[in-house]
Amino acid sequence: MKRMIPILLSFTLIVGTTACGKTDTESLETDTTDYANALFDDSYVHTIDIQIDQDSWADLLENPKDKTKYEVGVTIDGNTTENVSFATKGNSSLSQVADSESDRYSFKINFGGFVEEQTYDGLDKVNLQNICSDATYMKDYLAYEIMDEAGVAAPLTSYVSLSINGELYGLYLALEDLDSSFLERNYGEDAGELYKPETEMLGNMDKQGKNNMERPEGMEMPEGMEKPDATEQPEGTIQSEGTDVKNDAQMPTQANAENAEMPEGMGQPHNGGMGMGGTAKGADLAYTDDEIASYADIFDNAQTDPTDEDKTRLIAALKQLSTGENLEECVDVDATLRYFVAHNFLLNGDSYTGSMLHNYGLYEENGILTMLPWDYNLAFGGFQMKGDATSVINTAIDTPLDSENIGKRPMWDKLMANEENLQQYHEYFNTLITDYFESGRFESTVSRISTLIRPYVENDPTAWYTVDEFDTAVNTITQFCLLRAQSVRSQLDGSLASTTEAQETTHLIDASGIEISAMGSQGKGKEHEGMGNGPEQMQRSTEEKN
């Protein structure tokens, strides 16, 4: 297994129907490592079949943006679990597919959605990613692999061949949800609180999956931003997932962060704001005041069920962070440095370090904060709106922020204002480049995975890309990462400056032969043609491919 799985105590569950065929009178001892060694064994492509009645399936296809939770049976590698919640997921990505001729949605499976505490080998929820905007089929997979290599607590992934009522639907990526199973696997039974911060601009989506606020033309809001809809759904079809998002905080009118000086080349005073014309209400992790309502971006998007005491403790941590002093009292410095090493290698502008303030997890335990990875389908330069491959690949590791956000990201600014932290960050970067990229292990991983999934890509009836485009994309992402590693090495040894201001174009690693769009582009789902509604069109597409 590629992941380092903590050894945890087993516990006993009473469930109606389980993956191992237990009845409601039998107890199932489930260790939280079980699902890691089963569904997330990435040495082969798993099979998942969704058994859903035809009326419910027709309703899902007719009303995908409703995110109705249907009660289905799920068979994974031959093991069936009944009474499971199954729904579409995503926001702009969901609308993108819904407004196209394709039905290739991303889905969320909640094993305990209709039967309390039911799991699949200890797993509570799994996301089935439709791999939109990713011709490589590997951006998310490689991103979490690199996070794991850097020593970050990262979601598990594997590939699945998805069927609906026995009919092949396509190759998907199974992704462990940032939820209770993830927390227990990484932090034990007494884990702390978990949030997925979202700005109001990104999170304020109506029932139809549309943003109620205007956004710049061509800017996509990727997956991982769901908010439950309070609108009443047809009786018998919807089940609340309970703790995905909290709505007990009021949106503040303004968020003003602490001003702080940064060392030359490392940022400027913070004036608030989130980029793209919005105002952050906590997602920038900036301290404003002691009012819970001032951090709606965080608390409205809780994955656990925090109390006011928990929220107050998190605010106190942000207040301490804003001072830049005694950071070990409010941040897991080692874990967060490791996060930034992998994150800044991956070049994901759709994130905390980019124009958007979302797509990360925030874990809090005993007043200590840790950042966690989430949603990397637009990594490897896929979110960049300007700049050629050479400028992207040579992004300075010590100044990763967009120009308008310099000094406005305290989790980065304050950590890197400390010279010891900056040195440790460089040492962790050196280890990642040496052990994973310069050793040849990265290329071996890409070769293994691309060989494993290529037949499934070739026969995928709902694929966004052809197998030839896949082959080109795999070669492109391989070269992109090797050149990125070469640039980082040059920055670490001093032959290329590690800050944007000091970099000289004559010393840049040449990436002019790389076409970033070959790895997949935003809006691919909307551009996709020929994929109509239902099995008939799927069959026609398969026949055309063959």
How are the SSEs ordered, and which strands pair?
Blueprint: E1 11-14, E2 27-30, H1 34-37, E3 46-51, H2 54-62, E4 70-76, E5 79-89, H3 92-98, E6 106-110, E7 125-129, H4 139-149, E8 157-164, E9 167-176, H5 180-187, E10 193-195, H6 200-203, H7 296-299, H8 308-323, H9 333-346, E11 360-365, E12 368-373, H10 389-393, H11 410-416, H12 419-437, H13 441-458, H14 467-493, H15 524-527, H16 535-545
Parallel strand pairs: 3-8
Antiparallel strand pairs: 1-2, 3-4, 4-5, 5-6, 6-7, 7-9, 8-9, 10-11, 11-12
What proportion of the residues is helical, as a percent range? 25-40%
Largest sheet: 7 strands, mixed, barrel
Shape call: globular
- The count of helical stretches stands at 16
Q: Please provide the count of β strands.
A: 12
Mean of all residue-level pLDDT scores: 81
Question: What is the first-to-last residue Cα distance?
Answer: 35 Å
Class from secondary-structure proportions: alpha+beta
Strand fraction equals 5-15%
Order of helices and strands: EEHEHEEHEEHEEHEHHHHEEHHHHHHH
Name the poorly predicted regions. Answer: 1-30, 203-277, 525-546
Describe the strand arrangement of the main beta sheet, using strand numbers: 3-4-5-6-7-9-8
Radius of gyration: 22 Å
